[in-house]
Amino acid sequence: MVSGDPVPIGRRVAYLRVRRRLSQQAFADRLGKSKSWVDKIERGVRRLERVSTIRDIAAVLGVDAATLLGREAQPAEVAERSRGVARIRAALSAYEMTRGRPVVSRPAVAVDRLVREVGHAWTTYQHARYPQLVEALPRLLGEVQHAYVRDPQAGRVAVVEAYRVTAALLVKLDEASLAWLAADRAMSAATGDRVLVAAAAVQLGQVLRTAGARSVMLAAAYRIAPPDLGAGDPHELSLCGSLLVQAALMAARAGDDRATSELLDDAADMAALVGDGHDHHRTGFGPTAVELARTAAAVASGNGREAVAWHEKATSRDGWRWLPVEHRAAHLIDTARAHLQTDDPTNAARLLLQADSIAPAEVRHRPTARKVVAQAARAPDAPGTITQLALTLGVI
């Protein structure tokens, strides 16, 4: 039975069969099954797990698989996400940051209140509550942009952080061009403040995936790097290390294993000085985060076994439990991809279901995650649990 569905699938099969005026024997004959098999399915004694069988039943009953499972073919959250992204796009288009342009006459929100609201937006993101954040961002973007125009100095932090969290969310939703716009706005507003520039560059690195972008990340990292690593401020070390991680992931995607290893080793040195359990500038940077990045880099390189080994090491750390839910769920999806690279759909399914249990929106609203669910469900020996999730999401 699909989680949250009050009607067991076997009972729905029976209802649809009767509506089609098919006896159990006639239905069984069309499926190439026995009458006893059909009876056990309808009574819930036997579970429907294989994608091919569910599709065959749906075809005989004249419905699609999503209807058979009691779900809409196009999940409501997908349509709502599209509408939310359109509202964010409209908010980004209402750009009143041109210097010298008359400010629209409307009540101004106090900057300290905006800073708190942006902080709440980041918390919402890190708890993987993406639908709530999609709903909140259009208004927040309008207010921080307005405050920045009125007082660029006072409103700078709020507007940079608002654009950062917007870019981070849009990357999750696979809205690359819009994410690039938000990250570019953050970089533009941060100009002149090396800390804010480095913070904005972290999100820029998430958006950019080209080899040339690696130099942008490294330039930002070296600009914020302390002269003496041992005496470095944890905030600066976290930003510098996070930028090195972004550069390393770009190197991994480009197939540059040597650069990947060297950059992650440098980041690990900084992470050791910062320690786990911190979230300076919303980076979550620390030793555990670097090991998760090693997992992601190995997946990008197609080395699933190495990725699984790094995953097992990282998740045995205390720091694993201290990371934001969003970070942990995203890592579980990365490691599920690693298991699929090693032809292990059972463990891939286990991690995907674990991610879905701790951060449902990370799986259900993130296009990349939905593709991994579909890939796991299509494996010949995929567990029934992942098949049910895939059908619920409408991805197979």
UniProtKB/TrEMBL annotation:
PANTHER family: HTH-TYPE TRANSCRIPTIONAL REGULATOR, METHYLPHOSPHONATE SYNTHASE. InterPro entries: Cro/C1-type_HTH (IPR001387), Lambda_DNA-bd_dom_sf (IPR010982), TransReg_Diox_bact_type (IPR050807). One of its GO terms (molecular function) is DNA-binding transcription factor activity. The keyword ATP-binding does not apply. The keyword DNA-binding applies. Residues 13-68 form the HTH cro/C1-type domain. It comes from Micromonospora nigra. GO terms for cellular component: cytosol. CDD domains: HTH_XRE. This is Transcriptional regulator, contains XRE-family HTH domain. It comes from the Bacteria. It holds the Pfam family HTH_31. Keywords: DNA-binding. SMART domains: HTH_XRE (SM00530).
